[in-house]
Write a structure and sequence with these properties.
Blueprint (H helix, E strand, L loop, with lengths): L2 H23 L3 H31 L2 H12 L4 E7 L5 E5 L25 E10 L2 E11 L1 H6 L1
Antiparallel strand pairs: 1-2, 1-4, 3-4
Length: 150
């Protein structure tokens, strides 16, 4: 083979390799959209949970709070919920063993968990009642349906 052809083929291979590396390294528009949808799902669930928990949290009714968490856990994709008071002490939980430490909160679902990782976005929502902080809700939302698309 002529040396110019060899050089041209080597250069073309290098360009293709560099392009493929960039395509793999950069987040695809689909992945960005899926991450946006995951953040929206987490935020919407937080809104729903705050609305459902405000009255029993204000009343301090532990039994009603526990029932509300169990009903909320029945929502599609919600893996666990832990309601904490203003000092971070658990008041009620559903789907989580309180003897285990809670996972770190994800950075607003900025990215979907990588393949093979736990497909859960871990979130925190400050709960306000009449404008005052009454506690926080820690919860995990499955991203498995979104990750399957990506």
């Amino acid at each position: 083979m002529h040396w110019r052809l060899k050089l041209l083929l080597a250069g073309a291979a290098a360009v293709l390799l560099a392009g493929a590396t960039l395509l793999v390294a950069l987040p695809s528009p689909l992945q960005a959209e899926l991450a946006r949808q995951a953040r929206a799902q987490v935020r919407q669930f937080g809104d729903l949970a705050e609305a459902r928990l405000s009255a029993p949290l204000q009343a301090g009714d532990a039994a009603v709070l526990q029932q509300a968490l169990q009903r909320l856990q029945g929502a599609d994709g919600v893996r666990y919920l832990v309601l904490q008071d203003g000092q971070g002490q658990p008041l009620a939980a559903a789907g989580w063993d309180l003897r285990q430490p809670l996972p770190a909160v994800d950075a607003d679902g900025a990215a979907l968990p990588e393949a093979g990782a736990d497909p859960t976005l871990h979130a925190r929502r400050e709960l306000l009642v009449d404008g005052q902080r009454r506690g926080q809700l820690r919860y995990g939302v499955s991203t498995a349906p979104l990750a399957a698309v990506g």
